[in-house]
Specification:
Blueprint (H helix, E strand, L loop, with lengths): L1 H27 L5 H11 L4 E4 L9 E6 L5 E10 L7 H13 L3 E6 L9 E4 L2 E4 L1 H24 L6 H9 L2 H36 L1
Parallel strand pairs: 3-4, 4-6
Antiparallel strand pairs: 1-2, 2-3, 5-6
Helix pairs in contact: 1-4, 1-6, 4-5, 4-6
């Protein structure tokens, strides 16, 4: 009886670890459908307006309008999700056109397959390209950066256009360092969950022997 209770408790613990790991996998590895990532963004940033791109208007998949805590507009991110086996450089020019049509400050392609030389995320020809596992941390930093730039722009009105300020900041080393730090933290969390789950399963296997 005691053994059965122990096994049942361990099974429950494994299920919980699996649920947590799967949840982390969705956020970090990006093995989710477009709608799920859209909902993840909406959950993470409840004050922002995150909506599918209306059909027939322009390309891209999701318009992410950043809104600060005080209701101020920070800018817009245009997201496009790719589910293909091969990368196409043609996506970059197309999304830049869509970005202009959407009047978005930033354009991001989320893809399992990345351009040659890109490991996780990179700005390529004016478009941010990221692996799904880094999509959420990239979104967090892009959003925060837009809000910071919106605030800075108010004190330097007339000196630089909004687009110029955004581009200069996003192509600089400070921004990349910020994203790398967040991606590393998320990856460490995922690794810890995987290790914990493996240890529990190993312990469970020994008990059944």
């Amino acid at each position: 009886m005691e053994k059965e209770q122990t096994i049942a408790a361990m099974q429950k613990q494994i299920e919980e670890l699996k649920r947590r790991a799967d949840q982390g996998s969705q956020q970090l590895q990006g093995e989710v459908q477009e709608l799920e990532l859209e909902n993840l963004l909406r959950t993470k940033f409840p004050f922002d307006a995150i909506e599918p791109v209306p059909k027939g208007e322009f390309g891209g998949d999701v318009l992410h309008r950043v809104v600060g805590a005080g209701g101020q507009s920070g800018g817009t991110i245009l997201w496009e999700f790719k589910r293909t086996k091969n990368w196409s450089d043609g996506w970059l020019a197309k999304l830049r056109d869509d970005q202009r049509a959407a009047k978005a400050e930033i354009a991001v392609i989320v893809s399992q397959v990345l351009p040659k030389g890109v490991e996780t995320f990179e700005m390529v020809e004016g478009v941010w390209v990221t692996h799904p596992r880094a999509a959420l941390p990239v979104a967090m930093i892009l959003r925060q950066s837009l809000l910071e730039l919106a605030s800075a722009r108010q004190s330097s009105e007339g000196q630089q256009t909004k687009t110029e300020m955004v581009y200069q900041y996003l192509t600089g080393p400070r921004f990349r360092q910020r994203v790398e730090a967040v991606v590393e933290a998320f990856s460490t969390m995922q690794e810890d969950l995987d290790k914990e789950r493996k240890a529990i399963m190993k312990q469970w296997a020994k008990r059944e022997e």
